[in-house]
Fold these 3 entries.
Entry 1:
Amino acid sequence: MGGKPRYVGVAERRARLAWRHRLAGGAGAATPEEVAQSLVALHGTDPATVYLGVGARLAEPGGTVPATERALYEDRTLVRMHGMRHTVFVFPAGLTAVVHASTGLAVAARARAALIKDMAKAGAPDATWLEEVEESTLAALARRGQATAAELAQDEPRLREQFVYAAGKSYEGVHTVSSRLLRLLGVEGKVVRGRPLGSWTSSQFRWALAPEHPGLEVAAAQTGLLRRWLASCGPATEADLKWWTGWRVTDVRRALAAAGAREVRVDEGTAYVAEDDVDPVAGPAEPWAALLPALDPTAMGWQQRDWYLPPELWPSLFDRSGNVGPTVWWNGRVVGAWAQRPDGEIVWRILDREGAGAEADAAIARQAEGLRGLLGPTRVTPRFRTPLEKELAA
């Protein structure tokens, strides 16, 4: 492209986030599928995050739980599976083949090699034995339709066998074949998580055979995934893209070129937008507030987050592993945190008062009231707890 790349300032980046992540007034989605399409992926490590992330973006959030359960477990228009960075996400069903080819194959190869290596160090059976158990497990799952690891072990008792991991190290532990193998099969795209045993907040999932999808060429899949993500999250720097995808920098650069991504300038330096997305974007007419759950894909969307999350808030809002807790948003930036107390009350605290006065307080209070209505009698505790969330919930 000729000329100097256009500068995209913080205000415009926040405007893009507001519209494309369906957080601004009037931007709400009609269905969970529309939310997932807009975000590319919903973070699925904490089951509650999927539902709360959808509810925060629906125009009519009252039916969030049944609508999301329908999409996940009846219509199968949303699929919970391993994706970028060896992490569990919920994707639109039409994107699963792209995700598997672009990110899953490389992760799966490393995961299988690691499992075989760990078992060999522990003196456990070899790769041939593991393949036999795998075939038997998949056959049992095909017969049952959906099953827990314990149920599958009734059909394939070798799943109960254990081996010592990292013997002699400070993090030594005992692994069960079922836990490691089923996770591996998930990364390889052979199984997916099905309906949980308990409520929608439960992390005790059944397993099901993964839906069949066409095999795609890796480079083409990477280009397709990057185009989708830039349309949702651009502008993004090369560091953002490498972190979010988990790819090598050479893969990121090849996909950027193949996608025809356009260079722009942001405060961090060179960034990229989709080929047809270079025009300025105006912000919402009205200010907006949001209460987003722990690990929400907007809060975790970029590696470089200073433009929407002040660095001084990190110690209060993140755990030691870099997982973000529940966040309070005002006009495109994180200003504080929220939590649910044992009696169901939604409480929050604003840590950054810049531009967040009485109007913000009133808007956040309305969001909290709506969230309490969505939750009803359900109590939600984030899987990865952060300092301020724990303090507020106490």
Entry 2:
Amino acid sequence: MRMSVEQPLWQALTAYRVLTLLYALGLCVYSFDDYDHPVGAVVYMAVLTLWTALTFRMVASAERCTRRFLVGDLSIAVIGILLTPLVDSHDRIAEGTPTLPSIWTMGAVLGFAIKGGWRWGASASTVVCAANVIERGGFAQDTIHMLSLVWVASVGIGYVVEVARASERTLARALRIEAATRERERLARDIHDSVLQVLAMVQRRGAAIGGEAAELGRMAGEQEIALRTLVSTGLVARQRTGDGTEAVPDRGGLPDAGGPPVPPCLPGPERSDGGPCDLRALLAPHAGSRVTFSEPGAPVLLPAGVAGELAAAVGAALDNVRVHAGEDAHAWILLEDEPDAVMVTVRDDGPGIPEGRLADAEAEGRLGVALSIRGRLRDLGGTAEWISASGQGTEVELTVPKASAKKAQQKGEAAR
């Protein structure tokens, strides 16, 4: 069952309308002989009683309390206020005698506040204030005090309702995250006790047997790492469909523990809606038996086009590792989300790059590094740095300032 934090307010409003109706009827009976036109007062009180009885269930919940009902409820109250000078004497009105609906009017205002928050409450109380000023024929000290109380009360209750709703949404989201985390942990335990152990055994036996079994073992090792990444982070690599195109996996709509749900990144450098993209989801597919991917626990959000270009630069760096460091080289990808920049470091354990080799390659017309990596980062307003020593591997640092990422995205949208 879904518990609403505002439901007690609706129940209190229902009781308030009944009690204030009885109070207004008591005032009418008490002042019956003092009215100039008591029949008019009786007719209005009969209408008010019938309206309250017929709409008793309308204020039982937010779903039943519609805008049309709220407008009608407020209209009944305002009509009663404006009818007061027609049934009561001028002297009694000048003395501060209550209007025909009396404090029942506050129930109509509170309905607006609970339904729509403090702005609705302020609007409804302003209408009531204007009707009271017209009824009194001007501003009086007691009128100002009473109207100020109505306005402050409606705004205060409306604000409390908005805070309660925000708290309810936060609690519901926390419960969903907790449920998703528990389910992920349960699946991780089950998979670890069965599938992962089998894949690890196939990898070891395949490597020991050699030949075609070694290739089978290598593939089993890749699947083991991919599966570990899935159960530990929830990031799923993009899969190939039957026609060779990449399919976007369904993450089940579960939110990340570090923030609200992030729309999945479509294949290619840009999403059609231009919204934010979780860079982790683009880099996770690179993880394998010889590539280790380390990421933050929260989404790393960048504009979709920027995230796609940065992921492509990482892919180009890994291609260089495979080509120049060899198929047996191991690579590590480290994703860091700094307050003002996003940094991706790609490191390998290959032989390293001799000093001056990058400049010579560019002079020879080999533009892989210059265009695929440096060019992309330059267009994004970022930098690409190489740190390498002979025999000690290579480290590539790709840095994109978040301010530059936003400018690059805006520039791309303007170009389109």
Entry 3:
Amino acid sequence: MSHSVLIIGSGFGGIGMAIRLKQAGLHDFVILEKADELGGTWRDNTYPGAACDVPSHLYSFSFERKTDWTRRFPPQGEILDYLRHCARKYGVLPHIRFGTEVTEARFDAGDGQSNAVWRVSTSEGDELTARVLISACGQLNRPALPAIEGRESFTGPSFHSARWDHGVDLQGRKVAVIGTGASAIQIVPEIAAEAGRLVVFQRSAPYVIQKPDRPYRRWERMLLAAVPGVYELSRAKIYALYESRAVGFVKYPRLMKIMEKAFRKGLEAQVPDPALRDSLVPDYPMGCKRILVSSDYYPALNRPNVHLVTDPIARITPTGVTTADGTDHEADVIVHATGFLSTDFLAPMKITGVGGRELNDVWRHGAAAHLGITVSGFPNLFLLYGPYTNLGHNSIIYMLESQYRYVMGCLGALRKADLDWIDVRPGVLDAFGREMQERLRSTVWETGCASWYMNAEGKVVNNWPGFTFAYRRATRRPDPRDFRARRAAPLATPGTRA
């Protein structure tokens, strides 16, 4: 089956891109989704306490406002419902093929008499073709399980936080949570009151700041819906506040010292035990790793049934976790809150471009894409939430909307200039990669810690080293000089051009 555009993934990236395609009058597209439901990370992460750490008014599409969020920071279920609503309202659902995982995509340059296409193979054994291939897989979609000796030997329930087993009853049981990242700090407070004994294994202490969350009052929701401009003002205010944080992240990392002092003061107020408090002080500059937000994580650690363990894990046994000091920590259930394979991007899919080059091989020393969107040697392939587009300070939805516009500009160029394909020039991609690495060196992410922003070689490949409005300006429209192109075959099949 042939399409003009094929999108991989139906999270925020895929749904938003599909809406923009339909608004532009392009209806010949398909979304391939490996799961049985849309939603991406907000479908997968159903663990207790799952919620966003960006305010709801900003963590939503600018073109589809929602004035009746129940809280300032939206919970997982509400975000998923919002995405379902968007897909229904804009007629995206009929374009989604659920339960269809992409295993391979190969660029076929054509023979001069026919146009180039991407040949996409699926887990069902089908092959689809599309002139344009858009990856909306995101960066946080493949759970990372730690290589701990004996992990498979544990006899009780054991699962990753993104694959939460809701059939497991934690009431009164001994629970081990491995990890203290963004998922763990939401999980621990929720299950602390339920578990008989909860042991939290911390490899590296995170910075956790207060989360100014609260329910929206009924009159506030009515005001947002009824008075023109109030919602937009709220969104703009939140954006400006969060954008200002980029000054410390990417311009003057020394400013993070001010936030560090506030963090320590808050920690002292929330954790009265000096020994426990000392264990919760990070040994790296604030912002080097992801800053977490929670108002109930530290209070949960004060509970008598909750125990923080900072000794390294030596192995997992059939009955629990053994640390390097020889202590056996019995457990009935193990939760791996150990993050994601964030720097692998399109893996494990096999993406083959011009001349048989495989994307994973091209990226063996670190993923790179011009503006996080295009890769030289892979014509008509566009990435959403690709390398160098993650943030430490603002909403990724803002970045995605910038990318939609850029991709639509590229599709418009294909159509208007009657082009078969466009491919970013190698020199343009290389220059962008050098610029990113040079700018990243002066950011807080390069101040001496290991984080999920880095690949195995210690190279930061995830984050945008600047303001989001600067990224929007850079992606305002594609520059024709950045691309090489080939004109469409004269006998192209009608109706197949993007």
